Amino acid sequence: MKVALIAHDRKKDLMIQLCTAYKAILEEHELFATGTTGTRIMEATGLEVHRFKSGPLGGDQQIGAMISENEMDVVIFLRDPLAAMPHEPDVTALIRLSDVYEIPLATNIGTAEVLLRGLDAGFVDWREFYNAEGSIDFG
Ligand SMILES: O=C(CO)COP(=O)(O)O
Fold it and tell me: Which of 59, 104, 108, 118 is 20 to 30 A from 96, alpha carbon to alpha carbon?
């Protein structure tokens, strides 16, 4: 499965803790991240992560594009609800696209743990059917 990992600055330490704790699960999957988050995860855990641009420079939009192409299966986006972001429209767009395409999305650590355990238990396997179908009518 393709898993996107994104964390705003004040949530990056939490993301590292999550990736460290769930490394055994994450290394079974293809990992993608916005720029700084990806660098931090790779340095801290040794996991292989495909890095996009930094969030404020378009990384959220790149991941959104993958979602719209049916190329992303899980999104973990530890966003900061207490800070204003210059790229707030991009953040909103990524979350919106996850909902448009029914992609499992966690926006806090509590849900992220449940989602990773569910991923490991096969609860996201239905995505393989969608992937095989190629195009689904979400309209
Ligand atoms: O801003 C972000 C998501 O909106 C995250 O970007 P970075 O991982 O580059 O810090």
Answer: 118
Q: How far is the CA of 44 from the centre of ligand 1 (A)?
A: 17
Q: Domain residues for 54?
A: 2-132
Q: Which two tokens stand for residue 79?
A: 């966003």
- Categorize the per-residue pLDDT at 129 as very low, low, confident or very high, splitting at 50, 70 and 90: confident
Residue 138 lies in a domain: no
Looking at the domain assignment, is residue 139 inside a domain? Answer: no
Task: List the end-to-end C-alpha distance of the chain, in Å, as a whole number.
Answer: 24
CA atoms 90, 58, 43, 45: torsion sign: positive
Write the ipTM.
Answer: 0.98
Tell me whether residue 43 is in a domain.
yes
Is 137 inside a domain boundary? no
For residue 80, what are the CA distances in angstroms to 83, 106, 110, 124? Answer: 6, 13, 14, 26
Q: State the closest ligand 1 atom to the C-alpha of 33, by its place in the atom list counted from 1.
A: 8
Atom of ligand 1 nearest to the CA of 38: 8
